[in-house]
Design goal:
54% of the residues lie in helices and 13% in strands. Bound molecules: ligand Z5A.
């Protein structure tokens, strides 16, 4: 008997919104329920993707064109979908992904002003229908996220952008959430981490109800 297909959950949000913190909590919550899962991230998650990540986050790469940045995000994604996400879901594993395609709409679309129609074209080609079952968007004022992230040492190539860039990113995420209210669950990330985790686990109820008993 083949295992039922796994569920695909992505986490999104601006800098310092608490994705890594929430991922650790969610992972424990799901594993305690006997769910086998794969945790991964974008850009990255495969040897090719991690090499792409090193390029796009390297502060020395200041000449990177917005178009190049967009294509590199999708190059990493193409590899992740084929090497990790699709095989895991087919084997019945759940996938928890720290950012996915919505980040390209928010950062390269909202932040860098790349045409959304072009991003949608790339999504159709690269993701080929591989969409999350649930996307948890951690929404936080830009200043609060940046304050949390401060003190982690040197900023990467994207973190050095001005507040206005991150305001556009936040607006881009909210626009995505408004456009797909069934897939997105927006969480007020200014709440304590324990409340954020509880809210996220409640958002999983529908997916958990589909598990065989
Ligand atoms: N990017 C892109 O441009 N296009 C794309 O298509 C994709 C990505 C896929 C990847 O960075 C970069 O790539 C990202 C977007 C771009 N650039 N930026 N900026 P990333 O995702 O690896 O890293 P990040 O966005 O910079 O995440 P982060 O700063 O590491 O934040 P986080 O994981 O969301 O937060 P955290 O590490 O869990 O928490 C930050 C701090 O806050 C930490 O000290 C926590 O203890 C604390 N924290 C967490 N939750 C709370 C609560 N609830 N209350 C108080 N304090 C908290």
């Amino acid at each position: 008997m083949t295992a039922p297909r796994g569920k695909f959950i992505s986490l999104e949000g601006g800098e310092g919104a608490g994705k890594s913190t929430l991922l650790a909590g969610l992972r424990g919550f799901l594993e305690n329920r006997g769910i086998r899962l794969v945790q991964t991230r974008e850009p990255g998650g495969t040897p090719v993707g991690e090499a792409v990540r090193a390029i796009v986050l390297d502060p020395m790469m200041h000449g990177l064109a917005a178009e190049t940045e967009l294509l590199l995000m999708f190059a990493s994604r193409a590899q992740l979908v084929r090497e990790v996400i699709e095989p895991a879901l087919a084997a019945g594993r759940w996938v928890l992904c720290d950012r996915y395609v919505d980040a390209s709409y928010a950062y390269q679309g909202g932040g860098r002003g790349q045409p959304l129609a072009r991003i949608a074209e790339l999504e159709r080609w690269v993701c080929a229908g591989m969409a999350p079952d649930l996307t948890l968007l951690l929404d936080l004022p830009v200043s609060a996220g940046r304050a949390r992230a401060a003190g982690r040492g040197e900023s990467d190539r994207i973190e050095i952008e001005a507040d206005a860039f991150f305001e556009r990113v936040r607006a881009g995420y909210r626009q995505r959430a408004a456009g797909e209210p069934r897939r997105f669950h927006v969480i007020d990330a200014s709440q304590p981490a324990a409340v954020v985790l509880l809210t996220a686990t409640q958002a999983l109820a529908t997916l958990l109800a589909e598990l065989p008993r």
